Amino acid sequence: MKVEKLIEIIGSEFYTGVPDSQLKALCDYLINTYGIDKHRHIIAANEGNCVGIAAGYHLATKKVPVVYMQNSGEGNIINPVASLLNDKVYAIPAVFIIGWRGEPGVHDEPQHIYQGEVTVKLLDDMDIRSFVIGKDTSDEEAAAKMDEFRELLKNGKQVAFVIRKGALEYSEKVDYKNDNLMIREEIIRHIVDVSGEDPIVSTTGKASRELFEIREANGQKHGYDFLTVGSMGHSSSIALGVALNKPETKIWCVDGDGALLMHMGSMAVIGANAPENLVHIVINNGAHETVGGMPTVASKIDVVAAAKACGYPNAVSVDNYADLDRELENAKQSSVLSLIEVKCSIGARADLGRPTTTAIENKNGFMENLSNS
Fold first, then answer.
1. 279 near 252, Cβ under 8 Å?
2. Are 102 and 87 contacting, i.e. CB atoms less than 8 angstroms apart?
3. Which of 370, 339, 319, 176 is closest to 254 using CA atoms?
4. Which of 42, 179, 191, 272 is 20 to 30 A from 150, comparing alpha carbons?
5. CA atoms of 116 and 102, how far apart (whole Å)
6. What's the distance, CA 196 to chain centroid?
7. What is the side-by-side strand order in the sheet with 158-163?
8. How far apart are alpha carbons 128 and 253 in whole angstroms?
9. How far is it, in rounded angstroms, from Cα 364 to Cα 159?
10. Can you tell me the distance from the alpha carbon of 236 to that of 278, in angstroms, rounded to the nearest whole number?
11. pTM above 0.90?
12. For every one of its 373 residues, what pLDDT tens digit does the chain have, with 9 covering 90 and above?
């Protein structure tokens, strides 16, 4: 189905969401058509944030908003859907468009398997009527289902279109880029060089994939690293939990700007606990690159000032390798909580692979290495 047709069938004037590779056609269409527009299209920090924005839109306009996300974001919407949107509370209508990663019978990465199994069930449990769109779904079928959905929406219900892999098409191309010069894989290589055998907790997406391949190229063991392949936004919290319980070991967290924004309150908890052995590195390219490159708001905020306000004693920003190396060495040698923001370009190798170890193997190797540190 062409994404333009789905947009026409739904008929909404406002979209908010968190980008997803399964919804790349939709994301690219929204960027090409509206860009980032406070009245038509907002990319939010997390999926619960989207629901709140959508609710406010409805309260102000009486119109029905659309919220888009990967199915991994369903967990982030359970509370605001159940305690805000639901027709037993405020009865606020919304249309969800959800990319179905880990659909049963379709090969996907391990972090998507269980989420894929429960995607439709979670919607049912939240009293959200859903319709699955696949490659063979006709425009007429989608339109007929939307006619049914409109009756539910009138009564303050929520509905969802669940999008199978490859179900949506969009012919226009979007080029996502910024003016930064540093390359993420090279940044991570510098981090590995300085951190040595210290444990690293790395965030969801391409950063963990690049870290894995750097270890492979160096002939190093993977037990040094915990690859947070799912649970976007929580790698810094994982690193905090490790650092507090391994106070004699320097712990490094390789984070991304989209992940940082998703659960930004974690910075306040990290700052309040201020573990002297934690180095929090935020690789900031201002984009959700792993799922297509759509922008985050991180290029418009002062990450260093936010960190300092949250209690980080040391926080700096760098945009070149010489400064990066200096700040990495300073953080390694110092005994205070540190944050290093690294301004990064958008892009990765076309042949970038994925970890060849299982999630359980990664966890066990990391725990074994920690017990010996």
1. yes
2. no
3. 339
4. 42
5. 4
6. 28
7. 41-43, 15-17, 66-70, 94-99, 158-163, 128-133
8. 37
9. 41
10. 10
11. yes
12. 999 999 999 999 999 999 999 999 999 999 999 999 999 999 999 999 999 999 999 999 999 999 999 999 999 999 999 999 999 999 999 999 999 999 999 988 888 899 999 999 999 999 999 999 999 999 999 999 999 999 999 999 999 999 999 999 999 989 999 999 999 999 999 999 999 999 999 999 999 999 999 999 999 989 999 999 889 999 999 999 999 999 999 999 999 999 999 999 999 999 999 999 999 999 999 999 989 899 999 999 999 999 999 999 999 999 999 999 999 999 999 999 999 999 999 999 999 999 999 999 999 999 999 998 7
Q: Would you state the structure tokens that stand for residue 98, as one six-digit string?
A: 């959800």
CA 322 to chain centre: 29
Residue position matching structure tokens 């507090």: 244
Residue 74's Cβ-count burial label (10 Å; 0-12, 13-18, 19+) is: buried
- The 3 state secondary structure assigned to the chain is CEHHHHHHHHCCCCEEECCCHHHHHHHHHHHHHCCCECCCEEECCCHHHHHHHHHHHHHHHCCCCEEEEEHHHHHHHHHHHHHHHCCCCCCCCEEEEEECCCCCCCCCCHHHHHHHHHHHHHHHHCCEEEEEECCCCCHHHHHHHHHHHHHHHHCCCEEEEEECCCCCECCCCCCCCCCCCCCHHHHHHHHHHHHCCCCEEECCCHHHHHHHHHHHHHCCCHHHEEECCCCCCCHHHHHHHHHHHCCCCCEEEEEEHHHHHHCCHHHHHHHHHCCCCEEEEEEECCEEHHHCCEECCHHHCCHHHHHHHCCCCEEEEECCHHHHHHHHHHHHHCCCCEEEEEECCCCCCCCCCCCCCCHHHHHHHHHHHHHHC
Taking the C-alpha atoms of residue 168 and residue 135, their distance in angstroms, rounded to an integer, is 7
Token pair in block for residue 218: 């160096």
**Residues whose CB falls within 8 Å of the CB of residue 201, separated by 6 or more in sequence, listed in order:** 225, 226, 228, 235, 236, 238, 239, 242, 251, 252, 253, 254
Tell me the two tokens of residue 338: 């540190």
Which two tokens mark 327? Answer: 């700040």
Single-letter residue type at 91: A
